[in-house]
Each structure stands twice: as structure tokens, then as C-alpha cells.
């Protein structure tokens, strides 16, 4: 394989290898692939460092494994990954190989696709180093920490001491308000206006590509203006964005990191019942690097941040804590003590009032010739506030006025003048990490909404199909589906539900179904009756599975499952904590599965209610697997003789489908 720059000329002849010995000879044709290295490929490339690796070892089957691993991480084709430089690292001890590559995004035509931007490529590879190691059998080291402090965009001067106000040119149109931020600006638009510069008027303008987010369809109105028709789900008009997400545990959402910063603001709202959790993390996954982490520690918010040298914790205090299941807001303000001017070109405060107050009152800033504070220093400040809080009052007079501690600040001094937050920004958790990871918690169970970075709302899109109404839950989510659709995300087309008036049932005889393992049976139902039979499946000559709503004097009306053999109860379980005769749709699924117990095999029935929100399992013996289904009854049972047994002869009143 040969890689050449796009400006080069290549002339090839058909190569071959020949070997002659005695009476025999062997000739092999060689395939020579030539890939043109384009400027686009170089611009969007990254270099990773492989531990205990050399050029000779890498140019073997390991190269193919590396390509397969990168392709798997990026969900792209193996042929879309281009390795075009491998060099032994001579600046360090040990065998370290530097490998430079780029990759094309999936879905593009051969030779005409779009490359992953280098920032996104680096974050995806770093976030999935474990997966890459498993596939490629090669250890990818953390990206080089010896990054020179380059002049960040938006700063000037010999020492990056002066921040440029990028709102000076008035880039926001239609009376939009310009909010300067590090390295750029954000336009806050008036109602009916959108776009990066508030240039689009939804009342009089016309559709342009990308104005409707998350697959929304833009429709021009006949009388002028346009509107977005959003996909089914909790997408918010007018532009089909989403502000709320549910975290079931062991999950997280990834955003592009804050990168190298002198100041920033982050705010969000959350609700949880967890006493300890990780809400937000940005940085690399190594305690030697810069990072920020917002956690819940013993029901209180705690920020931990590091410039790579020491760790600082900031701990506001809220009476009663934040783990009460109610919505709570967090505001994080980070800034360099002497970095950034306080007013923009029009004289309006660039920082929030309380942050500006801290700048001016907690330490005398470095005053320039124009009387404006400027220039970064080694002193870094982080302020954290919870819920409605007078931040300046809490920090300055909180102790004097009676433990008013809804806000707190922490400072850190070191040689570095910026916070280098290279790496993804993660909400709700982090991937598997080493034990020495510098935060206590790894995930979060609950809901988050209204994430904002530098005063810019962040789209937290997810997808719920077919007009389902999304409801956040602590351990999962549920969708109230319209008639004709079912499934956890309303993605399954379902026949019309059957109504049962207490005197009806639906039955099948000899449906030609074998109880194989794994085997599934389930339905959706809703009722307001205290008791009734949902489903009964009879297999073989004497085995029965009953699903029912049953009343107990010790609990609310609950779902129960029973397995009987020759009318004798073999196994049963129920969900006494869940009231199901509430008139709402509930999903019930039974899975028969096998489990190894040493050399033996046990058969279990795993029952889930409302899409794994509630789960239980029970051993069912060895009689059911392999039997053919004889009859299946939904909504009730035929006859009321002694064969039915009183416990299961109630008829269901309500609706069912599935």
C-alpha cells in the first residue's frame, strides 16, 4: 500500500515476485493499492500513541486489527479509515509508536464522503479506548498531556493577556442581543427569530436547510413565514429541539468538551432520589489532567476541579439536600481571576452580575491603560450555586446572616493559566474507569433538563416514535402510545385493542407453538377492576401459566404470575408495590430462560412490568420447556367449573392487546 499526496504523480507497473529452485518455480502477482492523501485528510487527522509497539510489529496483522477497531468505534467501514504515518516515538523511554490516521463518516459515497473533524475523532477514540483495545489487541495511551499553551481564539497580545470582544461588530441582526463568550459570541434572538445571527424570521422568511432540528420538516406557510413539523416525541416547538433527558443508570450523554478555557458558565436542572451521583464531567479520564466534575455527595452538590496540579472542591449546602425527587438547578461559573474584560463594546456586563461582583471585590484585578481588567493569571476561581440564590450575598455574608450557603466558591493557584478541558463533556455518567479516577461516583439515575453553556441552550435530543408522549422515570422512561402503536418507544404497529366487559374472552386452540427456551409471552392491558384473568397458557397435558390481576388485603391490586403442574402450584410471583387497576396502560412480559447451575440447568421465568421498570424471576422446574401449547385464553377463562380453580376464574374487565 502506498500513500501519496494529491499533488504527486504515480506511475505503476504490474509487480510480481518470482522464485526458482531446481525444476520448480513460483510466481505471485502483487496488488498495489495507492491512496491519495488529500489536504482534507491531513487537516482532519489525529495521532494516537500505542504502548509496547514498534513499526515492525504494527505492520503485520495488527494493522488490520487496528483498522477494524477504529472502524467499530466510529461505526464506519474499515475501508474508510486511512493510516498514513507511523513513527517510533524517540522522545520517550520504552516502545511507543505514533500512528496518524483520519476516517470518513459513515453513509458517504466512496471517495466523496466527509471526514470526521479531528476534535470529534479524538474524543470518540479517547472515549472508547477500552473497546479499541479489545478489538485491536493494542493499548492506546491517553493523548499527549504535554500540550503547549497555544494562543486561544479571541485573545491577543504577547502573553494572550487581552481578550477581544467579538461582539464589537454587532453581528446579531433583528435586535438580537450579543453575548460575548470566550472565543466567540452567542446571539439571543427575539421571538420568531432564529439562526446563528438571528437572521431568520419565522413569521415572514422561508425555509432553509437545517432550521428545523432533529429530523423536523420545515413547511412554508402560504401567507408567509414557515413552521417546523417535529418528529413524534418530546421535541419542542418552534424548532424541534429537546431540553429534557432521562438517565436509567449506567448511561451517559456525550457533548463536545469545553476545551482550553479561561472562563465559562454551565447551568442545568436535575431531579433524582440518589444520595450520591455524578451529574457532569469534562476532561480526560486521568487524575493527572485538568477536569471539572459536578457530583451529588450525601445529597449535596459538590464541584471538583483541577488544573492538573491540585484538586479543589466547592461545596454549597442546601437544607434538606437535593435528593428529594424535586427539580433543582445548578449554576457553575469558572473564570481566571484577572482574565477577561467585564464589559463589552457597548458597556454592558459580559459576565453575570454576581461573577462580575466577585471579580471586582474579591481581588484587585490587573487594570490596563483603559481602566479595564485584562490578562490571565495563575489564579483560577470556580463558583457553584444551587437553586434560587443571591450568590454574592451567600459568598460574602452567608455565614454572618445565618448559614446562607446556597453558593460557594473555590480558588486554585498554579503555573497554568487556563483550564485545559480536552475530552468529552459527559452528562449522567462516565464509561468504565480506573479506581484512581478523581471523582467518587460513576453514574446518575434521574432526569436532567435545560443544559446551557455560556448562555447558549444545548439541544439534548432523543427519539420517541409515533407520537408517543414521553415521561421521565427514575430508572427508565415510558411512552403513552396512541391507539395502534405499542412497544417501549411506540415503534411497534399493534392491532386495535380488544375490549372485555367481564363476560368475554379470546381463545386459541392448538396454535402450533412450542415452548422453546428462550420463550416470550406478553401483552398490554388497562383496567379499573380489582381482579381478573389477563391470560392463561396451557401447555402439554398438565402445565399452565396464569397472568392475572389479583386483589390482596395486604396490598393494592397487583399483577401476579403462577405456574401450575397438575393443578398444583409450582411457582408464583407478584408485584405488590405496583397498583395496576388505575386505568392506565401497563406492559407485562414473561420470558422463560435457562440458567447454568454448575453442571445442571435451571429454568427460570423472568417477569417484567412496564418495560423493565419492575422485574422479578422465579424457578419453574423442568416440565414446561419443550411442550406444545394447547390453548391460550386472553381476558378470561371458558367455564366456571371446578377445573378452573377459584383463584383464576375471574373475568377481566378492561382492554388488552399485544
TrEMBL record:
Q: Which GO terms describe its biological process?
A: cell-cell adhesion
Q: Which Pfam families match?
A: EGF, hEGF, Laminin_G_2
List the Gene Ontology MF annotations in alphabetical order. calcium ion binding
Tell me the ranges covered by the EGF-like domain, including all copies.
163-199, 203-241, 454-491
Q: CDD domains from the entry?
A: EGF_CA, LamG
Q: Where is the Laminin G domain?
A: 242-479, 495-658
PROSITE patterns to which the protein is assigned, alphabetical: EGF_1, EGF_2, EGF_3, LAM_G_DOMAIN
* Keyword tags: Disulfide bond, EGF-like domain, Membrane, Receptor, Repeat, Transmembrane, Transmembrane helix
Disulfide feature: 189-198, 481-490
User: Is Amino-acid biosynthesis among the key words of this record?
Assistant: no
Q: Which InterPro entries match?
A: ConA-like_dom_sf, EGF, EGF-like_Ca-bd_dom, EGF-like_CS, Laminin_G
- The protein, known as: Cadherin EGF LAG seven-pass G-type receptor 1
Amino acid at each position: 500500500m502506498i500513500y501519496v499526496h494529491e499533488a504527486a504523480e504515480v506511475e505503476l507497473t504490474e509487480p510480481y515476485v518470482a522464485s526458482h529452485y531446481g525444476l520448480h518455480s513460483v510466481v505471485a502477482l502483487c496488488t498495489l493499492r495507492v491512496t491519495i492523501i488529500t489536504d482534507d485528510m491531513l487537516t482532519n487527522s489525529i495521532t494516537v500513541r500505542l504502548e509496547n509497539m514498534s513499526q515492525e510489529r504494527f505492520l503485520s496483522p495488527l494493522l488490520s486489527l487496528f483498522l477494524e477497531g477504529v472502524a467499530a468505534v466510529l461505526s464506519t467501514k474499515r475501508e474508510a479509515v486511512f493510516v498514513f504515518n507511523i513513527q517510533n516515538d524517540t522522545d520517550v523511554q520504552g516502545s511507543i509508536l505514533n500512528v496518524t490516521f483520519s476516517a470518513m463518516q459513515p453513509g458517504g459515497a466512496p471517495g466523496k464522503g466527509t471526514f470526521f473533524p479531528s476534535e470529534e475523532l479524538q474524543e470518540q477514540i479517547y472515549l472508547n479506548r477500552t473497546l479499541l483495545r479489545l478489538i485491536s489487541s493494542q493499548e492506546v495511551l491517553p493523548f499527549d498531556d504535554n500540550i503547549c499553551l497555544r494562543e486561544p481564539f479571541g485573545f491577543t497580545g504577547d502573553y494572550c493577556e487581552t481578550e477581544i470582544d467579538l461582539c464589537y461588530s454587532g453581528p446579531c441582526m433583528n435586535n438580537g442581543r450579543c453575548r460575548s463568550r470566550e472565543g466567540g459570541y452567542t446571539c439571543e434572538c427575539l421571538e420568531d427569530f432564529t439562526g446563528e445571527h438571528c437572521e431568520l424570521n419565522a413569521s415572514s422568511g422561508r425555509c432553509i436547510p437545517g432550521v428545523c432540528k432533529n429530523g423536523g420538516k420545515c413547511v412554508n406557510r402560504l401567507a408567509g413565514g414557515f413552521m417546523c413539523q417535529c418528529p413524534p416525541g418530546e421535541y419542542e416547538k418552534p424548532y424541534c429541539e429537546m431540553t429534557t433527558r432521562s438517565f436509567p443508570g449506567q448511561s451517559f450523554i456525550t457533548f463536545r468538551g469545553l476545551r482550553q478555557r479561561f472562563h465559562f458558565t454551565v447551568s442545568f436542572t436535575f431531579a433524582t432520589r440518589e444520595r450520591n451521583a455524578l451529574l457532569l464531567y469534562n476532561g480526560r479520564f486521568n487524575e493527572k489532567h485538568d477536569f471539572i466534575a459536578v457530583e451529588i455527595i450525601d445529597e449535596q452538590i459538590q464541584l471538583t476541579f483541577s488544573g492538573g496540579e491540585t484538586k479543589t472542591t466547592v461545596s454549597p449546602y442546601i437544607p434538606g439536600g437535593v435528593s428529594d425527587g424535586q427539580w433543582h438547578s445548578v449554576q457553575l461559573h469558572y473564570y481566571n481571576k484577572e482574565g477577561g474584560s467585564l464589559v463589552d463594546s457597548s458597556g454592558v456586563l459580559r459576565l453575570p452580575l454576581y461573577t462580575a461582583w466577585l471579580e471586582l471585590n474579591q481581588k484587585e484585578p490587573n487594570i490596563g491603560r483603559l481602566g479595564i481588567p485584562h490578562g490571565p493569571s495563575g489564579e483560577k476561581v470556580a463558583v457553584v450555586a444551587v437553586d434560587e440564590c443571591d450568590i454574592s450575598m451567600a459568598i460574602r455574608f452567608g455565614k454572618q446572616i445565618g448559614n446562607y450557603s446556597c453558593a460557594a466558591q473555590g480558588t486554585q493557584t498554579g503555573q497554568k493559566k487556563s483550564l485545559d478541558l480536552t475530552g468529552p463533556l459527559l452528562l449522567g455518567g462516565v464509561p468504565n474507569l480506573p479506581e484512581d479516577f478523581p471523582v467518587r461516583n460513576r453514574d446518575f439515575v434521574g432526569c436532567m433538563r435545560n443544559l446551557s453553556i455560556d448562555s447558549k441552550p444545548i439541544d439534548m435530543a432523543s427519539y420517541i416514535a409515533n407520537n408517543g408522549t414521553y415521561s421521565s422515570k427514575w430508572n427508565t422512561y415510558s411512552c403513552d402510545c396512541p391507539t395502534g402503536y405499542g412497544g417501549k418507544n411506540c415503534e411497534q404497529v399493534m392491532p386495535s385493542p380488544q375490549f372485555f366487559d367481564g363476560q368475554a374472552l379470546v381463545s386459541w386452540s392448538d396454535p402450533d407453538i412450542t415452548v422453546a427456551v428462550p420463550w416470550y409471552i406478553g401483552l398490554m392491558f388497562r383496567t379499573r377492576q380489582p381482579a381478573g384473568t389477563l391470560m392463561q397458557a396451557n401447555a402439554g397435558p398438565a402445565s399452565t401459566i396464569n397472568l392475572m390481576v389479583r386483589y390482596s388485603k395486604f396490598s393494592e391490586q397487583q399483577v401476579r404470575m403462577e405456574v401450575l403442574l397438575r393443578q398444583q402450584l409450582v411457582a408464583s410471583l407478584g408485584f405488590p408495590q405496583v397498583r395496576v387497576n388505575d386505568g392506565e396502560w401497563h406492559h407485562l412480559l414473561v420470558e422463560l430462560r435457562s440458567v447454568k447451575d454448575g453442571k445442571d440447568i435451571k429454568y427460570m421465568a423472568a417477569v417484567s412490568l412496564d418495560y423493565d421498570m419492575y422485574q422479578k424471576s422465579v424457578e419453574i422446574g423442568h416440565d414446561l420447556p419443550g411442550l406444545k401449547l394447547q390453548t391460550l385464553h386472553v381476558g378470561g377463562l371458558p367455564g366456571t367449573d371446578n377445573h378452573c380453580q377459584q383463584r383464576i376464574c375471574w373475568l377481566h374487565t378492561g382492554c388488552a392487546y399485544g
